[in-house]
Amino acid sequence: MSANELYRVEVRVRNGLKRYYLVREVNTDAKKFAATRVIKSGTKPTKAEISRTIALFGFDLEMKCMNKVAKFRAGKFTFERYADEDEYFELEKFRYLLARCPPGDLDHESAAYISAAACTAAVEFTPAEVSRLFSAGEIPRGKRLFDVNVVQNLHNAYRLHGKKERLTPKAVYRLQSTLYQNIDEAPLTPSSKKDLAALLSSFNQKIKENAHPFEQCFLFYEAFLAEFPEAGLLGFELFSRMTAGFGYRIPVSSWPEMIAWVKTRNADLEFSVRRSFDEMTKGKIGVRQKQLDFFG
User: Is the pLDDT of residue 295 over 80?
Assistant: First the structure.
């Protein structure tokens, strides 16, 4: 997608004078959020003038839209336990930036995820070791068969992350069968189904009642581990899938640790989005292009 496809030009007439604006508009939650910048007054802007305005001010318009969307969503939902709107503002900034950030190294991301998830089963594999296991079949010295099976199962589960599936007890048991293949006895038994269904029903009801989705995912995770304390691996994977479905890909830890991670990550994501924007608009500002007259 080119930078020009993200914007439109809008003309407004005031006191008989036409003003041409560059507009960045974002649609979310059935609402429109826009930020504008004057391109010029009088005659219609040329393509070069539009491109140059995008290159100079397009990223700033994107950030203005981000702040509007994040502020709206931070105040849109109800909160059950964590009620700091500044924290939700950071969460919504993260969600916005993540959706606009260019894709990273998928192999590196999957290795890092599998490494973190394996820790919940007391299995230590570095991301580099995970990568070598699947790229070269290299098993690190000293690793047990149990360790390798956990990592292999996580790899199989990770490959299904793109699959959209409604979270039901049946889906959870199916995920469990993938995660616990060839390792210890699975933590959820057939008799666990009723308690699991109650947790999922409560979660879905609160989402319908406009509770903040990320907070509810975390509260579900806590309740799930309280009910099934041996299911750390499954709980980690469930949390990851649930939050990703709402647009938040955040590694689970304590609430303060996750918020601190998000704040740090937001700075990195903003830099990445800016760099991507600079790449899209490279060459749009040239000394031979006509200088613009900016008003307001």
Answer: no
Distance CA 237, CA 180 (A): 12
How many helices (H) does the chain have, and how many strands (E)? 10, 3
Place of tokens 């690190």: 140
Contact 91, 262 (CB under 8 A): yes
pLDDT at 116: 95
Q: What is the pLDDT of residues 252-285, one digit of tens each?
A: 999 999 999 999 999 999 999 999 888 888 755 4
Residue whose token pair is 């889906």: 171
CA 66 → CA 70, 91, 237, 265, distances in Å? 6, 12, 29, 15
C-beta atoms surrounding 208 within 10 Å:
8
Residue found under tokens 């990320």: 214
Q: pLDDT band for position 184 (50/70/90)?
A: confident
Q: The pTM is what?
A: 0.87
Q: How many CA atoms lie within 13 A of 60 on its CB side?
A: 9
Of residues 181, 210, 41, 80, the one with CA closest to residue 121: 181
CB atoms within 10 A of CB 164: 5
Q: How many beta carbons lie within 10 A of that of residue 228, not counting itself?
A: 18
Residue with tokens 């993200």: 6
Kind and range of the H or E run holding 99: helix 85-100
